[in-house]
Design a protein that fits this description.
Elements lengths: L11 H14 L3 E8 L2 E11 L2 E8 L2 H10 L10 H24 L5 H5 L11 H7 L6 E2 L2 E6 L2 E4 L2
Antiparallel strand pairs: 1-2, 2-3, 4-5, 5-6
Length: 157
């Protein structure tokens, strides 16, 4: 089966706006769309978590979607282009945001648990960006820093 939402005709800008509305209804404020080359690339927003204002940045990796669609033999050729990949990627982000908010509303997780990888640090990078650049700065295993060994985390010796 081809990637989720691969047939969508809804423009990326419209979907990004829908996500802004969803986040605003759930308490986010200062919501903005970040652009690259005139196209929406990410959403930034702020949430109050336990009295602290936290900024988040949700990227939309349409290039990854395009690569996946191009490799998928079940995805029709007419959908294998960057404009369609942008539309699809934004719909996937919207579905993800809606699902995460449902998990929060149902009491299965807190906001910070769901959105933490996308929290923006003082230097403007997200926590997930910081972690993947140098996992030892954030992760620990037992009494020593974690280190990456062939894609898994292992206690440093």
């Amino acid at each position: 089966m081809p990637i989720l939402n691969y047939t969508t005709s809804i423009q990326a800008q419209k979907t990004a706006g829908e996500i802004q509305g969803i986040l605003a209804m759930k308490g986010a404020h200062s919501i903005a769309i970040d652009y690259e080359e005139g196209q929406p690339a990410a959403l930034t927003f702020r949430l109050n978590i336990r009295g602290q204002e936290i900024s988040f940045r949700l990227p939309c990796n349409w290039r990854g979607v395009e690569q996946t669609m191009r490799r998928d033999k079940k995805c029709p050729q007419r959908f294998k282009n960057s404009e369609q990949a942008r539309r699809v990627a934004w719909r996937i982000v919207k579905d993800w945001v809606e699902a995460q908010l449902a998990i929060i509303e149902s009491g299965q997780a807190e906001v910070a648990e769901v959105f933490l990888p996308y929290a923006v640090t003082g230097n403007g990078e997200t926590l997930i960006q910081r972690m993947t650049q140098d996992p030892s700065r954030l992760l620990t295993a037992g009494d020593g820093p974690a280190r990456v060994i062939t894609g898994t985390f292992d206690k440093a010796r």
